Amino acid sequence: MTDSARDFYDSLAADYHRIFPDWEASMTRQAAALDGLVRRQLGAGPHKLLDCACGIGTQAIGLARAGHRVVGSDLSPVAAARATAEADARGIGLPVVAADMRQLPFRSGEFDVVVCADNSLAHLLTGQDVAAALRAMRRVLRDDGLLLLTLRDYDELRRTRPAAAPPQVSHGADGRSITFQLWHWHDDGEHYDQEYFQLLPDGEDWEVRVRRTTSWALTRSEVTDAAAAAGFADLAWHTPDTRGFYQPVLAARAG
């Protein structure tokens, strides 16, 4: 993970909710899908859960509402601060710290569940960094604890190498805003640079905000192999049509 990823999310934090047509509904829907996997694997709980890439709280807030004892961490201190503010505004206790997922500042075996969602692992651009993050997640999990990790469907995206992602229209108090991405694939066919455009209402005109970052299009087999090497077992992928989360989800147990 590079400084550019932190800068990207520091800049995006105030507008991150605009990615979703309805952020509040997305929080509820995503938490229901992830909570269903937690209950299926570990029972009803409540469980102590770390969201190690919590951003502004999209999954963490919903999972706390579901009754779990949630702690958040994120590379971006600006996003982490907003997650705290959003949780407070909803009357939810959500301790959040700014931390790199490769060096999680928690005790070994502290959590029953670690969540790493919203394609966050893809910001790690080398196998060494991916391995370090997965080892850190394994370390803070109790034995037989549960990892839930979500990524874009890069098996398909590496085959088709799209030049853009579909636009998203969000409706807020200030009107409609539009988010879309242009993707510039590297010659290796695995990494791509994103130009992240947001069009925000500005009276009768639009304010255009552009942010840039780089991602690694990790295939499911690459992530599965890296997770197994980091000490995870019983690895299984769940697709959106089977578990209801909008990205493929890797569920794995700490061996």
Walk me through the structure.
The model has no long low-confidence stretch (mean pLDDT 96). The relative contact order is 0.16. The longest helix is centred in the N-terminal third of the chain and has 20 residues, at 23-42. The strands form two sheets. This protein has a seven-stranded mixed sheet, sandwiched between helices. A four-stranded antiparallel sheet has the order 6-7-8-9. Helices cover 34% and strands 34% of the residues. It is α/β, with parallel strands linked by helices. The radius of gyration is 17 Å and the shape is globular. It folds into two domains: 3-153 and 218-254, Rossmann fold; 155-215, N-terminal domain of TfIIb. The chain has eight helices and eleven strands. It has helices at 3-12, 23-42, 58-65, 77-89, 127-140, 154-160, 220-229, 240-243, and strands at 48-51, 69-74, 96-98, 111-116, 141-150, 164-172, 175-185, 191-202, 205-216, 232-238, 249-254. The two termini are 26 Å apart.
By DSSP, the count of extended strands is 11
Cα distance spanning the termini: 26 Å
- Unreliably modeled segments: none
Put simply, the count of helices is: 8
Main beta-sheet annotation: 7 strands, mixed
Architecture of the largest domain in CATH? 3-Layer(aba) Sandwich
Q: Which structural class is indicated by helix and strand composition?
A: alpha/beta
Shape: globular
The averaged pLDDT comes out at 96
Estimate nothing, just give the exact number of structural domains: 2
CATH class of the largest domain: Alpha Beta
Question: Could you estimate the helical fraction of the residues in percent?
Answer: 25-40%
Strand line-up in the sheet with most strands: 3-2-1-4-5-11-10
Radius of gyration: 17 Å
Give the SSE order as H and E letters.
HHEHEHEEHEHEEEEHEHE
CATH fold field value of the largest domain: Rossmann fold
